[in-house]
Design brief:
The chain has 312 residues and is of the alpha/beta class. The protein folds into 2 domains: 3-181, 3-Layer(aba) Sandwich (Rossmann fold), CATH 3.40.50; 200-304, GMP Synthetase, Chain A, domain 3 (2-Layer Sandwich). Helices cover 36% and strands 22% of the residues. It has 10 helices and 9 strands. The strands form 2 sheets. A 6-stranded mixed β-sheet has the order 2-3-1-4-5-6, sandwiched between helices. Strands 7-8-9 form a 3-stranded mixed β-sheet. Strand 7 and strand 8 (238-247) form a beta hairpin. The protein starts with a helix and ends in an 8-residue tail after the last helix. The chain binds guanosine-5'-triphosphate and magnesium ion.
Length: 312
């Protein structure tokens, strides 16, 4: 029997708690940063741009007394194309399936109209405890603090609101305790050493997408999908990864390749710099760029690129 088979047999304390925490909120408020901070490692990509996270992604936090499964979700927003609709549906599904809702908010600015819409969406999920993570507290101006905190507290009935800074790891451990108290008693869902459910292929695709989002402007960051065509551990010291970067238009292809291939070279270097220490091997990265006309508005192309709702 492997360790993985064994984990259900392990004796856990009688009051062991476990369950799913849906981490929701507007794009760019710091949901993925917060989950990475809780887990102490990067499981989700983070960029300064809204709509970075596109799919549901689990971050599994295990201690002897508890297992909290954080469900990172795409930012709730008013969708402009099919990809946006898909992303919003992913977030709404996570909300419905959650034991606890963790609404992440950017406390450094006033609540927006989008936050009011999210409040309505959250209120549709009745009987689920709601915790507010008032994030980016490091950017909160003293003069605004009271007014902002009060305005956020008014948005939705909730159990507790906590100031945190995911970036500085402030308030994060308190938040874990608060969430655990609200989970049902029960055994673990995952082996204790598992922190995520995604495989290295997916992580490699996401790292490449992150580097593109960081290096490009305007529509391009959001028009990119990355498909791993081949992923091979060629030897103990070398991993070969070949990937296709899909864009929506010819002009975008030119920008991703760059003058004399300069941009694609930089993207490859940036992605390798992150993947190599992660894999503890050298990485040979073969990147190609292809145009899939308007793929974000085409259900069939989106499904081909792996944007599928599991239960559909
Ligand atoms: N100053 C400050 N910046 C933060 C904090 N948390 C996150 N950020 C920054 O906010 C930006 C967005 O962070 P993400 O974690 O990608 O936000 P997200 O909510 O997951 O965004 P989407 O995936 O687009 O919905 C990044 O530039 C982060 O570095 C924080 O506590 N303080
Ligand atoms: Mg995110």
């Amino acid at each position: 029997m492997s360790d993985t088979d064994n984990f259900l047999e392990e004796s856990l304390p009688d009051d062991h708690r476990s369950g799913f925490v849906a981490v929701v909120g507007r794009p760019n408020v710091g949901k993925s940063t917060l989950i990475n901070a809780i887990l102490g490692q990067k499981i989700a990509i983070v960029t300064p741009r809204p709509q970075t996270t596109q799919r549901q992604q689990l971050g599994i936090y295990t201690e002897p007394q508890m297992q909290i499964i954080f469900v990172d979700t795409p930012g709730l927003h008013n969708p402009q194309h099919k990809l946006g609709e898909f992303m919003v549906k992913v977030a709404e599904d996570a909300l419905r399936d959650a034991d606890v809702v963790l609404w992440v908010l950017d406390i450094s600015v006033e609540p927006t109209v989008a936050d009011k819409h999210i409040a309505d969406t959250i209120q549709q999920v009745q009987d689920t405890p709601v915790i507010l993570a008032l994030n980016k507290a490091d950017l909160l101006d003293d003069a605004n603090a009271e007014a902002h905190i009060a305005a956020y507290q008014e948005l939705v009935p909730h159990d507790l609101a906590m100031l945190v800074s995911a970036l500085n790891n402030d308030g994060v451990s308190n938040l874990i305790g608060v969430l655990a108290e609200r989970l049902p008693e029960g055994p673990r869902f995952y082996p204790p050493d598992q922190v995520s459910e995604v495989n290295m292929r997916f992580i490699a695709a996401e790292v490449i997408r992150e580097k593109i989002m960081l290096a490009t402007e305007q529509e391009i960051p959001h028009s990119v999908a990355v498909e791993i065509v081949e992923y091979k551990e060629r030897s103990e010291t070398m991993t070969y990864i070949s990937a296709i970067i899909y864009v929506e238009r010819d002009s975008q292809k030119g920008i991703i390749i760059g003058k004399g291939g300069s941009m694609i070279k930089k993207l490859g270097q940036d992605a390798r710099a992150e993947l190599e220490p992660m894999l503890d091997t050298q990485v040979y990265l073969d990147l190609q760029v292809k145009v899939l006309k308007n793929w974000r508005s085409d259900d069939r192309l989106m499904r081909r690129l792996g944007y599928r709702i599991a239960r559909d």
